[in-house]
């Protein structure tokens, strides 16, 4: 005969574990990214994208596509969330589709931008 008070129900523990696994997967998908000719470093609300110059470079980050359109001197043109932006180093963030976009650096080999979700979006 078993003692009902000695039997521990694992159902709530299994539910919690399943919920945790689902949330972790959801966050990974939201923060997930893919790229071609670029590398990314993403958190939950912002990504740094480093584009290689001289190639067709793009990255999908935070659910939007970012592309390097062109670069000349310290000025670059990128497309983020379907909007084309011209950025210069040291310039304040420019709004594009609910994101704040800044140009971190430009070299002969790379262009590095930061794309962050706007707080109100």
Describe the strand arrangement of the main beta sheet, using strand numbers. Answer: 1-4-5-6-7
- Helix/strand class: alpha+beta
Uncertain stretches of 5 or more adjacent residues: 19-31
Number of separate helices: 1
User: In angstroms, what is the radius of gyration?
Assistant: 21 Å
Overall mean pLDDT stands at: 80
Helix percentage range: 10-25%
Note the beta-strand portion: over 45%
Shape: globular
The profile of the biggest β sheet is:
5 strands, antiparallel
What does this structure look like?
This protein is of the alpha+beta class. It has one domain (about 30-115). It contains 1 helix and 10 strands. It has one helix at about 10-30, and strands spanning about 35, 40, 45-50, 60, 65-70, 75-80, 85-90, 95, 100-105, 110-115. The protein starts with 10 loop residues before the first helix and ends with a strand. About 20% of the residues are buried.
Task: Write the topology of this structure.
Layout: H1 11-31, E1 34-36, E2 38-42, E3 46-52, E4 58-61, E5 64-72, E6 75-80, E7 83-88, E8 94-96, E9 99-106, E10 110-117
Antiparallel strand pairs: 1-4, 2-3, 3-10, 4-5, 5-6, 6-7, 8-9, 9-10
Q: What is this entry, summarized?
A:
The protein is an alpha+beta fold.
